[in-house]
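Look over what follows to help learners.
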Amino acid sequence: MRNEDPDPVDARLGARLAELRAGRGWSLGELAERSGVSRSTLSRAERAETSATAAVLNRLCHVYGRTMSQLLSEVEAEPAPLVRAADQRVWQDPAGFTRRSVSPPHPGLRGELVEGRLASGADLAYDRPPVPGVEQHLWVLDGTLEVTVDGTSHPLAAGDCLRMRVFGPTRFRCAGPAAARYALAVVRP
């Protein structure tokens, strides 16, 4: 158990995750079964005792039919048409992934723009997309990145752009000596 107060974003995210589960009338056990995430991890995330990883949030987004940006925007105070660089939400996964929500969040829009950064050696695997059939355009801005979609590996360097429609597992790996930075345009089906 943590002694300090939870991070405000983690606290709002945990409360939203608990609301989503309660709104469907699911127990922690039912959600664990549907998502493949352990009951204890779900419970700790809902109580903001831990920061959920990108992989855990991805599984929950899949169950709830949301993109990660949608879920994160739901814990925002109020959507705005303009988000200044200093006010863009940044979320960090302890596994070496940093995600910046670049575009202003809005639940009525299908597209969003995200900046991703993977530390050298970071390796993120998602067993499913948050929303099946989501369209993504990944443009590498700095460094190198290996993206695996449907079992096909795509080595990408700065300036390369990969378009994909995601129905199954994906993997993002930064094996280069430096971090990789990329822009990701996400379009819900």
